[in-house]
Amino acid sequence: MALPRSPEVSELLPLKPVVFQILLALTQGERHGWSIVKELDKRMGGGRKILPGNLYRTLKTMLAQGLIEESDMRPDPELDDERRRYFRLSEFGAEVARAEADRMEEMVIAARSADLLSAPSQRQ
Amino acid sequence: MKHSTMSDWVYRLLLFAFPASMRRQFGADMAQQFRDLRREARDEGASVTQIWMLAVWDLAKHASAERARQLSNFMRRKRTRESPQPGAGVLSRPHDRLSRSTSPGILMSHVLRDIRQAGRGLIRRPGFTVVAVLTLGFGIGANTAVFSVLNSVILRPLDYHEPDRLVRLYQTQVSNPGGRQWVSGAAFLDYREMVDAFESLAAIYNYRELGFTLGGTGTPQRATMYPVSADFFYVYHVHPIIGRTFRREEERSSAHVTVLGHRLWLAQWGGDRGIIGQSVVLDGIPYEIVGVLPDDFVDAVGGDVDLWIPLELQDQNATENRGNHYLSVVGRLRTGVSFAQAQAQLNAVGESLAEVEGEWRATIVPLHDDVVGTSSTTLYVLMGAAGLVLLIACVNVANLFLARNVSRQRELAIRSAMGSGRLRLIQQLLMESLAVAVVGGIAGLLLAYWGVTALLALIPDSLPRAREVAPDSVLLLFALGVTLFTALLFGLVPALQLTNPNLDQSLRDTTRTSTGGIRSGRLRSVLVTCQVTLALVLLIGAGLLMKSFLRLQSGNIGIAPQHVMTFEIHLPQELYPPERRIAFHEDFQQRMEATPGVLAAGAVSWLPVSGIYNSWTFSYLSAEGEVLRHAGAADFRVIEGSYFEALKIPLIHGRLFERTDNAEAEPVAIINQTLADRYYAGRDPLGQPFAPGGSRWRIVGVVQDVGTDLRGQFVPKVYLPHAQFADDRPWALTQVIATSDARPDLLDVARRELASIDAGLVIHNVQSMDSVVAAAMAREQFTLLLMTIFAAVALTLAVVGIYGVLAYSVSQQTREIGIRMALGADMRAVRWAVLRHATLLGGIGISAGLLGAFALSRVLQSLLFQVSARDPVTFTAVPLGLAAAALIAAYLPARRATRVDPTEAIRAE
Fold first, then answer.
1. How crowded is residue B657: how many other Cβ atoms within 10 Å of its Cβ?
2. In chain A, N or C terminus with fewer CB closer than 10 Å?
3. Which value does ipTM take for this structure?
4. What CATH number should be reported for the domain holding residue A38?
5. What span, in angstroms and rounded, lies between the C-alpha atoms of B188 and A66?
């Protein structure tokens, strides 16, 4: 059973798929833009990659909403002159991601009870 | 500094579509991601073009969304601030309603809806859209590309600290204030000492002969080296990244310290920061490295330099000869000192030096003007031509819109009848033209990117600062401005015409020859006339340049450049004292002449058609010692071996140099025809002496003139034998080898022979004499090529325009023509009616174009060679050609008019 959500969290749900995917990608640790792109690409099984305009506008909104934070971590400029910005999941972001996952789970359960999906144990 | 590609800068320019805050926050990361995407696409063999298309779409979509969000946030904040206080009551309501209907929020929603509608409209008519976008794209692209060169070369200030304070100092003679000369060592020291208007004044000895063979690892390399006075780096405010620059007490040739350029430091020492204090062997002598300059430093005067050493200024012997003008001098004005004040002070100091300097004074010019020189006229003319192309493109697209509007008249009339205001309709039509212009602008920017790459490949080396051509926000603003201007220009006329107050007439009119159609037809005729006018101006410009170029090509430069190879060999000064240098050249040329197929081998200190160089002043005497000409200027050339034979420069009188004209024999010289005519008018110059400095030389021969440039400019010239003049300086002679036919292996032979003499020597700057001549023509060729492209586009658009208007007018008059033919009109009369229309359009356009070209011709004059800017042949032939093209364009519609079937035409209505 899902935990009750705080009003700030509920306001953001449902999340756009790309926002949820980015939150998921950041659960594994800090990433820079290109690393997020690669991770999303892997999750979605290739196809069209998320482009810079889309990615950074989404990241900007997510920063404003407090879902993610900018990390202070920087590679040594002597080693890598492509100084990239790193992002990490905020506590609030983790909470929202969990709430979204719960919401999706509820929907999956609802779909199953409506016989749209077979039960996981019956899957071939 | 990271190396940016053209793709990087185009993408960065496109990022300007985002609000500044977003760009500041993420611009660099977005550009980086785009680079990553491209790199990955390349690695995977995917299409980079597709990445580009997706990226442009991504930017357009998200930038507009981001801007809309920003605007709506702003409006929300504004509304919150201005919201009525509670209790303001019912009275405020009407005002509320009024303000809501014109509130920016509503306007924004209109704008967004118009953008969507415009987009849909354009997608529905792909043919129309593609033609309009390409036409505009070409116009905007050509302008942006030429502007990017103009901006970098002329408009952008020099890339130094406070560049406005930098000046170049020349010496001039009171009797010839226009003739600028370099500065003598003694004069430089005097001005540096006595003029306090300069914060710093520095000299650079940028003679081509100066260079070093860089010893050490591997094959010996040639490095460009210029001696400079200690303040040189201070003038430019350039600070070494490591180490220091020179000190005043090091201004002597025995100092043996050097400052490295960034490129040489990276190439030879891999950027090792610990090299300060280490030695580098230059021409066999160890020099202590004292500093390294930053990578963005380029010397405005010396150009591409590898390293610097201190200039000898302490040895009196080196500097005392005030007749030897060998230094380029740059200075930085003190803060608060104006250009005029500095010049006034120079004049005063010049007067006080009159006793020692004679009639030599000093003059300053802004360093920027000195660097840019004469290239500004070329670039402004090209910019003007590109501007004309854009105007023609706008007229063309306006015509397209007018033609399309005819079919939309009823639609707009209905909307107007249903309550859309005229302003609202104009807004929507303008949005459509804006949409076309924006897409055209993006296409133009991409085209400019290719265009700039192509221009950079074509730009002659003689164009200064060409390496600095790079995009900046000014360029983007320019492209944006041009795009908006274009949209207004081609959008407003059709929009006003279409939304005229008689619009409801269209609803009542069912025939195709509606008043709107006729009015639009007239407007289109006017626009086509404008096109013809503008095209003729461009065509005449291109015609004049073409004629001038042909004259240049066929001009007599006095040499036979075919099958002649040239290259330089620099002999290290310390290893090659004068006697060895003489022996080396004799030996090398004998070996080359012994090679099968080689006709003649010689060498010269400065090649023909490469401009004025080593211009010295001499006194010319008669055999009796009478001074014929005091301080007459002449270019002099030091030659060796069979130089005249190699370039087939004919001897007119006397003899050429012989082996016996060596250091022990009497000094002899050969002069050219111009010198003989100018300074020895009416006398036989043979046997006459002339005196450069203290020595006397006897003239033994007169040879034919050789062009100093391709414009056939002949200046007085003196040839001296290297064997008698090797003492003066380590002459960097250019070898000139003539063969009986093309010999691609000649260089290998030369390298082999050179290695067998001295394995430490290098052949460099290899060019065929043909390419030396071609390089001298490069700027003219560049201007002509661009003008021809512009003129060809203008001609095409004008011809298409005429065809379009006539074809349209014939289709409008099908019924009238049908009736006339049914009534027995002659086919020839019908055809003539159409051709008459064409003649009228073309005639007015050509007359106006002739006037325009006549008025603008003055601008072109300085670019032309032996052709008047009002050349009657060009001013006759080009309009005739354009008229013929117009008639051909008109012939097709005319023929169609005669094929109208009267019964069909009448029944169709």
1. 25
2. C
3. 0.89
4. 1.10.10.10
5. 66
